[in-house]
Write a structure and sequence with these properties.
about 150 residues
Length: about 150
């Protein structure tokens, strides 16, 4: 096994570990907030989730900028090659998620007085987008399978 594959696998394990540590802190903060142990605003409770979102958005945006500047797809971790349009689509999905979490925190802290229907609207749009994407991917695989 060459050193590139070992390093790549180690990078994946590191990212997974950071992800689970962030999720664990988020769940701990939610439990402390709901139990009444802390007086934190919901914005502070969601900090671990926002850290993950910011890292993901910066990662996607930097590769998108590099893609536009060089005109080719730069190296990406795990050899996943995404087109420019796919990166823009992923950024859009993440922005809907961030908008939802911001609206949810504002509503839970009492800073805005709108219905939960409007708070959840970005989440529903994001879920419809992801469902449509899964449908298109399944359709393409099905067509490719039946052509061969």
């Amino acid at each position: 096994m060459n050193s590139f594959k070992v390093t790549n696998r180690m990078a994946f394990v590191g990212r997974a570990t950071v992800f689970w540590i962030q999720i664990t802190f988020f769940l701990l903060f939610v439990v402390l907030k709901l139990d009444g142990t802390t007086n934190w605003l919901w914005h502070f409770v969601f900090i671990p989730i926002w850290i993950l979102d910011i890292v993901t958005i910066v990662y996607l945006a930097s590769f998108l900028i590099a893609h536009y500047r060089t005109g080719r797809t730069p190296y990406e971790i795990n050899d996943v090659q995404l087109t420019k349009y796919r990166k823009i689509w992923l950024l859009t999905v993440y922005l809907f998620k961030v908008i939802f979490t911001i609206l949810l925190c504002l509503k839970l802290d009492g800073f805005i007085n709108i219905s939960y229907m409007f708070v959840c609207l970005p989440l529903w749009i994001m879920l419809v987008m992801l469902t449509g994407d899964a449908y298109v991917a399944t359709w393409k695989i099905s067509v490719k399978y039946h052509e061969s």
